[in-house]
Amino acid sequence: MHLPRIAPWLLAAVTLPLSVNAQAEQACGHVTIADMNWNSATFIAHLDQFILQQGYGCDAELVPGDSIPTTTSMIEKSEPDIAPEMWSNTMREALDKGVKEGRLRYAGVTLSDGGEEGFWVPAYMVDKEPSLKTLAGVKANAGLFKHPEDPDKSAMMGCPAGWTCQITSEHLFDALKLGDSGFELVDPGSGAGLAASIAKAYERQEPWFGYYWAPTAVLGKYEMVKVDFGTGVDAEHYKACITQADCLDPKPTMYPPSPVDTVVTESFAARAPDALAYLSKRAFTNPQMNRMLAWMEDNQADGEIAAEHFLADNESLWSQWVTPEALPRIKQALAAR
Fold first, then answer.
1. What was the pLDDT predicted at 16?
2. Residue 26 pLDDT
3. Where is the ABC-type glycine betaine transport system substrate-binding domain (predicted)?
């Protein structure tokens, strides 16, 4: 009979003071955490499981999740208890309704600077020509970005056809009048094709200009600089026009950050205030998450391995999120790996 692999840190739990764990479990109890199907989300889910289990005595269980079904289940059934990485804009109306009805709570921000989109150039280009960090500089140096099929044109790599960002990148390309500077928007064919174009440019130290987003492993591996349009952010116009396929008069604006939150059920928030306090403090910047995703990709690591790696290498960060009482218990569990 095949026995499931038991994580070493679960075994470590038996060494913790039973009175401490029992007392914490009485308050926290059984906790379900949505393990969503992308790398940053599964990493955070495993991280929360480890910290809540070892530091706060919760009986923490991971359950499969995704944005829409998880939100629906949390509202209708009060489970799972925690969605560690919810891109709130995609479900804003439903989430806000759940909060208003007293079923859900925004526990804290997952990404402190929000999900990030923009037009980017490699850092090595900016090092040589600082003006390239601005749109004016990119336009003035359009000749650097040779089109792969037409030497008389300049290339901007766009978002793959069929993705939502294809609409926004095309509208902003037009609003910023990049075509007037000789640029043509190039369809990379796929997300993999877009990532590969950055990797190829970096390998050869060649010019590159185009759309990308964070947090991603690509921006963790390759240092890129987000181009400043010089427009600021017009969030209302972005939502009303730039995101709409039928927008006829797009105007320049930087991409607004996308809120990424940790959402919990109100029943969990009420019974586990200490665990809730941890979730309210646990947040990553995009550069931190980019580096974590790059490490996961380079090491073909799953969420559990990534969580253990993060905890081992970043105590100065995560120790600020937990209580003084939880800290030694978490460190003890880590030492027993």
1. 44
2. 52
3. 30-312
Q: Which residue matches tokens 């208890």?
A: 81
Give me the count of residues in the chain: 337
Q: How far apart are CA 162 and CA 147, in angstroms?
A: 22
Q: What is the pLDDT, as a whole number, of residue 44?
A: 98
Cα distances (angstroms) measured from residue 206 to each of 12, 125, 191, 221: 50, 8, 20, 16
Sheet order of strands, 224-226 included = 183-186, 154-157, 210-214, 116-122, 224-226
Neighbouring C-alpha atoms within 13 Å toward the C-beta of 34:
28
pTM of the model: 0.87
- Residue 3: what pLDDT? 36
Which helix or strand (DSSP H or E) is residue 52 part of? helix 39-56
DSSP 3-state of 126? helix
- For residue 313, the tally of other CB atoms under 10 A from its CB is 12
Residue 311 in contact with residue 334, Cβ under 8 Å? yes
Record the tokens describing residue 154, joined without a space: 């300049």
Q: Which residues pair with residue 62 across a beta bridge?
A: 33
In a 10 Å sphere around its CB, with 0-12 CB exposed, 13-18 middle and 19+ buried, how is residue 225 labelled?
A: middle
Q: Per DSSP, which regions of 229-269 are E strands?
A: 260-265
Segment 270-274 long-range contacts (CB within 8 Å, at least 24 positions apart): 271/27, 271/28, 271/29, 272/27, 272/28, 272/29, 272/31, 272/56, 272/58, 274/24, 274/27, 274/28, 274/56, 274/323, 274/326
pLDDT at 164: 83
- Rounded to whole angstroms, how far apart are CA atoms 183 and 168? 17
- Point out the residues of the chain with pLDDT beneath 50: 1-22, 24-25
CA-CA distances (angstroms) from residue 210 to 130, 134, 186, 295, 326? 17, 13, 9, 24, 45
The phi and psi torsions of 216 (rounded to 5 degrees) equal -150, 155
